[in-house]
Amino acid sequence: MNIRLALRLARVMVHLVAGLATCALVFPLASTGLKERLTRRWSRKLLAMCRVTVEQSPGAPVLEHALIVANHVSWLDIFVINALHPCRFVAKAEIRAWPVLGWLAASAGTVFIARGNRRELRHIFKGLVTVLQQGERVAFFPEGTTSRQGEVLPFHANLFEAAIDAKVPVQPYALSYVDAGGAYHPSIDYVEDTTFVDSMFAILEGPPVRARLEPLQPIDGAGAHRRELAEAAHDAVAGALRR
Fold it and tell me: Which Pfam families has this protein been placed in (predicted)?
């Protein structure tokens, strides 16, 4: 490991420890607004240390109260979204096992779902409806796993019903990561046998990254079926990435 990489990694580790302290000591007493400000600032610093610049592409206005869905590319996705528009996340249970970041995600209010656990899914669904009805913004990755850049896997429809029950719109986001020339960044794909540690080192060692988030037009769930919402959101994200 070269000295420059070691220094980058050390800075990230110190920042993670600071995040752990904030979650343990500040979050239990903080208001929702303060949590969002701290989450936004911490996420931006983490991305900056990884040499990831975040930009919001021109798109639809971001709703303060909606069910947010996005394509899933990397472990960076949660922090890119939180750097701009902090959300309560629903994520796959494997994320909970990420070193340090999994604990931080849980402390920030992320809800984890185990694959194939229908009883747990029903329980989480009820909680999502309640949170949405309270006026919070909730986000999840309906592909259920990461995909290669430029690809969008089919969206699982189950959790879209939370938007219908809570009577809130669905707002899709399109996520992409590019290099200085505007091409998909070679260090970002987090698929197949790539581990979290492999991905972390690839990003820290690779060239700088530009993360692009494009908010898309909200989809009204009133009177819709969850499968219709899932298909409409999928097509919107896939179309934005093709552009």
Answer: Acyltransferase (PF01553)
pTM above 0.85, yes or no: yes
Tokens of 38: 């701290």
Q: Got the DSSP string for 21-65?
A: HHHHHTGGG--HHHHHHHHHHHHHHHHHHTTEEEEEPS-SPPPSS
Handedness of CA 161, 218, 65, 174 (dihedral sign): positive
8-state DSSP, 182 = S
Alpha carbon distance 229, 235 (integer Å)? 10
Which are the contacts of 108, defined by CB distance < 8 A and separation ≥ 6?
Answer: 23, 27, 35, 39, 82, 89
Q: Which amino acid is at 34?
A: L
Residue 111 sits at φ, ψ, to 5 deg, of: -105, 130
Strand, coil or helix: 206: coil
Nearest alpha-carbon partner for 236 in 224, 223, 219, 220: 219
Going along the chain from its start, the domains and CATH numbers come out as 3-242 (3.40.1010.10)
DSSP 69-119: EE----TTHHHHHHHHS--EEEEEGGGGGSTTHHHHHHHTT-EEE-TT-HH
The amino acid sitting at 154 is P
Least confident segment among 21-25, 97-101, 172-176: 97-101
Token pair, residue 25, equals: 């000591």
